[in-house]
Amino acid sequence: MNTLKAGDKAPQFTLQNQSDDAVSLADFAGKKILVYFYPKAMTPGCTIQAQGLRDIKNNLDNKNVVVLGISPDAVKRLPKFIEKESLNFTLLSDEDHAVADAFGVWGLKKFMGKEYDGIHRLSFLIDENGVINHVLDKFKTKEHHQVVLDLLV
After folding, report:
1. TM segments (predicted)?
2. pLDDT bucket at 111, cuts 50 / 70 / 90
């Protein structure tokens, strides 16, 4: 895994959202973007993380920040997650993990003694010019939204 760092230019990408519409990073030029990678919709940690971001949407809107959640989930799984948790931001499907690879968040993981490839839970705060300002890699899922807010002060 060769994870992007603060100061790097964010890779351009286009992925399908929960409505199966194409969404590109370029669509949000002139805005700050929180790109957060999560392993799987509707799992406990991912749900807590998404709920936290949902609950601070007004704060993020006031700071001109767009949230894009990216996982390897199929497009058809995303609307269920949005509906179940009343999510108010865009989720994107990266089934072939090409975008995760580009950001350097796809790699070897260990869980209960097993090793497998998957998405590492990292977030990138990208400025209005497409440059990564912050990489969030050490946080608890229930505190992720507060870490994001603290960086936007």
Report:
1. none
2. confident
